[in-house]
Write a structure and sequence with these properties.
single chain, 415 residues, alpha+beta, BirA Bifunctional Protein, domain 2, Rossmann fold, 8-stranded mixed sheet, 5-stranded mixed sheet, 16 strands, 21% strand, elongated, binds adenosine monophosphate
Length: 415
């Protein structure tokens, strides 16, 4: 019997896993510089955390959740996104009783029963951040800038940032009234009407050509913002301008999760085809209260690691070169092996990446191993090297060798 991974999951193995790890690290490093701290959470929660948090009108909740009954008869769901679980934890552990905003980051696998295709998986990976407790537009700009910096750290350039404001509840109520009136005149099927009933904004997200056409003249939420919401959005834009972050206003943007209010944003990559969303997020005013917490506002994002890696590959960015070994050590004989084990350990502790020809291989085979490892340098250590304390360091790219004192080799010798 030959096992295969379940349909639609993403898996990473060397060399690609090196790039994957680097993407994750680079995406989160700007958040750490801004004071966000790790929240390590379970990958499953009570189903209601998501039905109440994410919203019943969304595809995520209505058809994509991995929900099952556990052995105690509880309804459990594998997390399809990060924010609802973060809120549950913040409320449960009273993290919102200290200084605000609470700033946290997370990273890990997420699960959605989607139709698998390039860049769209049933288990995928995200890094995310949340800043909870203050409604300051400068935090919106900070959150957006952190995502932008992550992509730029990786060297990505072919992406754009779309932003809009989904307004506060008064803005949405005013817009809903005119939108519902507009939609009532459209020729829609039963299932679509039912979806619209829960959240009429969903219709902006409908990709069917006929619907797109019908929605071309629909009233836009951004034109119904209350003065307060409009002023908040103006400030977000002003701060982004100050930070030199380029954006496009996209008033038809609808996020896939229902909890967003106010600022919403999305990073879209030019070369990724149908699944071009690199990451996105926004502000959520009612989420915490709907999960039984205080009425605090928050803002955050979720960035797809898988898609960001695909984007780097599409732009031809090499993320693996820095993890090549600096040195490949080839010990010949038992005494040389005794020496090499300690020699290698010292170099690693000094910060060099060092590999070794294990398995007592003959010189020819071991040199092949050095080639295959991609190491920058190789050194053969035998009896004469040990007695003289001098070895020949071979530059694997140029083939040039130079005599070196073994005790003088350190991490800097390979630059
Ligand atoms: P969302 O939580 O829907 O706002 O998604 C945030 C980001 O996660 C998206 O922009 C994608 O990069 C990534 N993402 C969401 N769903 C999937 C999926 N099924 N497969 C791969 N990446 C995904």
């Amino acid at each position: 019997m030959k096992f295969q991974a379940p349909k639609g999951v993403s898996e990473y193995f060397p060399e690609r896993s090196i790039a994957f790890e680097k993407v994750r690290r680079e995406l989160i490093s700007p958040a750490k510089l801004a004071g966000y701290k790790l929240l390590e959470l379970p990958v499953f929660e009570d189903t209601e955390v998501f039905t109440r948090g994410v919203g019943e009108s969304t595809d995520v909740v209505s058809k994509e959740m991995y929900t099952f009954e556990d052995r105690g008869g509880r309804s459990i769901t594998l997390r399809p996104e990060g924010t609802a679980g973060v809120m549950r934890a913040v409320i449960e552990h009273g993290l919102d009783r200290g200084q605000l905003p609470v700033k946290v980051w997370y990273s890990g696998p997420f699960f959605r029963a989607e139709r698998p295709q390039a860049g769209r998986y049933r288990q995928f990976y995200q890094v995310g951040i949340e800043a909870i407790g203050l409604d300051d537009p400068a935090i919106d700009a900070e959150v957006i800038a952190i995502a932008d910096a992550g992509y730029r750290n990786l060297g990505l350039t072919k992406f754009r940032l779309d932003i809009t404001s989904l307004g506060d509840s008064a803005s949405r109520a005013a817009h809903r009234e005119v939108l519902v009136k507009y939609i009532s005149k459209l020729d829609l099927d039963e299932a679509t009407r039912a979806r619209v009933e829960l959240n009429p904004l969903r219709l902006f997200d409908d990709k069917r050509e006929a619907v797109v056409k019908m929605m071309a003249g629909a009233p836009l939420l951004i034109d119904y913002l209350t003065p307060q919401s409009a002023s908040h959005f103006e400030k977000v834009k002003k701060y982004l301008d100050k930070l030199g972050i380029r954006y496009a206003i996209n008033p038809r943007m609808v996020r896939g999760l229902d909890y967003y209010t106010g600022t919403a944003f999305e990073f879209v990559h030019e070369l990724l085809g149908a699944q071009s969303g690199l990451g996105g997020g926004g502000r959520y005013d009612g989420l915490m209260e709907s999960l039984g917490g205080q009425n605090l506002s928050g803002i955050g994002f979720g960035l797809g690691i898988d898609r960001t890696l695909l984007a780097c590959e599409a732009e031809g960015i090499d993320l693996t070169s820095q993890s090549r070994p600096d040195l490949y050590v080839i010990p010949l004989g038992e005494e040389a092996k005794d020496f090499s084990i300690k020699f290698i350990d010292d170099l690693r502790k000094n910060g060099a990446i060092v590999d070794c020809a294990y398995g007592d291989r003959a010189l020819k085979g071991a040199m092949k191993g050095a080639d295959k490892s991609g190491a920058k340098f190789a050194i053969v250590i035998g009896d004469s090297e040990i007695s003289s304390g001098i070895g020949e360091l071979k530059n694997m790219e140029t083939g040039v060798t130079s005599s070196v004192t073994l005790s003088a080799i350190n991490a800097k010798s390979f630059n």
